[in-house]
Structures are given as structure tokens and as C-alpha cells.
Queue: 3 jobs
Job 1
Amino acid sequence: MQTRDRYANLLQHFIGGQVTNFEYMDRFDEISIDLNRADPAVDELFRAIWVTYCDICKHKMTGDYAVEGESKKTVLRFILFLHSDFPFEWPTTKVSDFLLNLLSMGLYGKLKKPDPARIDGNEDVWPFFRREDYEYAVAHPKLLNGKCPIG
């Protein structure tokens, strides 16, 4: 869980505009060295966040790069998950699928047949697997003095 907490903290600073994208990637590399591969949550969330920023030019997540609206709620849900004790129950993304989806601008992911294991989970609350788990985490956050900003 320590790796999840470290990544949640980094993600919060990144989305809040306190560190640049390059600092975020460098610090993630430091975190991923300690990553317990038995828990793929951190890698999966890193991949999901990667599409929200430019990795070519240095910037902070402010102004034109700011994450707002539904995207910000999604990232807050990621942070809530990282601070929870719930396991990551989704199938992991194969690097080849990730790259094919990226190169096809998302078309590959839309055309690929869904993994049967994904059908059981509620994609609306990803990375939580069940809505009940998400609702429990919202009602009982470990941080924020018990007041969840997405509840």
C-alpha cells in the first residue's frame, strides 16, 4: 500500500499543477522501481493518466493543460482508489494492446472484443470493480477528515 500512497500523493500534486509533467514522470519512475508487481493498480492508473498530458513539452497541469469537469472527477476517483484497501480486480492491459489503441487513436479498443472478465466489473467506477466498493470508499475516505470531494 505504501507504493499506492506515494503514487496518489504524486498524482494529486501533478493534477493540482504543483509539479511539471517531466517531474511527474521522473518521480513515477522512482516509485515504480519499488512497485510490487503483484498489485498492478499503479501501472494501470499511470497508463490511464498518460493520455491527459503532453509528454513532449514541459508543462504543469494548469491553464490549457488543466484537468477539469468529469476528467477531474475521474482522477479524484483514481486517487480515492489508491488510498483505499480495495484490490485491483480488472484484467491488466497488455502493452501491445495499449500501443495499438494509441496508434489507432482509440479505434482498436472500440473494435476489439471485450474481455469476458471486464463484463462483470462496473466500468463507470473503474478502477474500483464494484459500485458498492466505490460508494464505500466515498463514504469512508482515509484522508480529508472523512469528507470526500467526489461524494
Job 2
Amino acid sequence: MICIWLAGGIHSIDKSTGAATLVGVTTPLDVELTIMSIEGVPILGVSDFLADLITFYPNPMIDQLNVELSSAITILKASIYDVLGRSIEVEVVNKTINVEYLRSGIYVLRLETNLGVLTQKLVKD
């Protein structure tokens, strides 16, 4: 179901037919908001939640990347991807990842945790 605001009311749109059904009426004295909700598309994803619980530093990195995380989070797998999409398996040891062997450039770190998957853009000096 998709809900949208049209002049004078909030409507539900049937995705298969495109028919709009009035859900609620608004008047000029009401505060009208434009809201759109598409079924199956989360407003707040797991990555947003995990980003608040996991911190990476320094970024840009030189020899190692430090990972600060909540005690409720367990890292199951860590991978670093280069700009060509090649995956490099890495280990998080004592909350650090050794990156001294990487060339300078842009990378993406992918952490699989017990609470979901988080990706983070990283820069290697």
C-alpha cells in the first residue's frame, strides 16, 4: 500500500490498479504534511541503527583501523572491498583491523554482525 497526500486529504493508492481511496480529510486550517510510505521499504534500516552503535577511526586510515562497538554486538565476518569490487577477508583482533598491506585509495568495509550488516566507506592514505 502507498499512502500519499493529495489536495484536501490523505489517500491510499492500490498498487495494482492505481485507484486512490480517501483515508482522511484535511481542511485549510489543518497542518498538511506530504508523506509517502512504500510497502517493503524501511524508513530506518538496520545500517542506520548499527551506525549509531559502531564507530571506525581513524578515517583516513594508515596502518590500522580501530573499531569501537557496543558490547551487545558480535562481529561474525569482516570484509574490505576495493573500487573494483574485489573482496579481502579481514579479521578484527582486539578491536582493530590491520590495513597496512592495502594501497592508498577508497575502500568499503562490510561488517556482518549479530544485529545485521553495516557498510562503511574508508580511505587509506
Job 3
Amino acid sequence: MKKFALIIIVFTLASCATYSPLVSFVDYSSYNNEGIFLTESNSVSFKYEPVGSVNVLLHSGFANEVKKAPVIEDKKGKGDDVYYSANNGRLKYKDATIQEALRLAVENARNKGANAIINIRYEYVPAFKNNPDGWHMSGMAVKR
């Protein structure tokens, strides 16, 4: 009977999981005010000229935060591993967000002459082995 009770307790504790929902809101209003039309629908009520597909895969990670830091050089002028760094800044960890993935997609679409993205899809990419978590965003860039 003691073994059975112990087994029940072990399975009860082993099955506990933390409830942690992932809730996101993607704000299209600022792009709408700039004349960029964004929709998750694959059909729209206006005529358009397809420009191309836009895909963004954004992973969380360290980003260089550039600062004008003084560089201390050694006597040879080349520096060394302790005092010299080609990176005149510091690294700051940034979480990948849906909003940042969308910003990169809109920027890319604008550079190609598009003023709308239709059939927008988002997918959370969980961390796996050496790859951090992130977001994949795709859509069709069009000119209306």
C-alpha cells in the first residue's frame, strides 16, 4: 500500500506544469497611418499588383549597442585581447517580438515598392538546441 501511495504522489508531482499562456497583440494602426495596408486575409477588395513574398525569421539574441567608447591601444597601436576591441559597444540581449518581425517585413516591402502586405502569417519558433526562440512572419507584398 505504501508503494502504491508513493507511486501516486510521484506521478502527481511529475505531471505538474506551470500555466504560462503566450499572448500577443500586433498593432497595425501606425502602419495604416503611414499608408501601408496590412491584413491577415488572403483576399482583398481592391486590385493589386504582386511585388513578391516577404519572409522574416527573427531570433532572440545579443545585439550590438554601438557606443563611442575610447579604445585603449598598446604600444604597437594594434591593441590586445584585454584592452582593445573592434566592437566599440556592448552587447545587449533582445527578445524577438512579433512587432519587430512585422517592422522588418514592412521595411523590406517598402524598399521593393510595395504599400501593402496581405495574407500575413505569424508563427512562434520555440528554442531548440543552440537556436534561441523567435518569430517567423510571412506575407505577400503588393502594390495597390
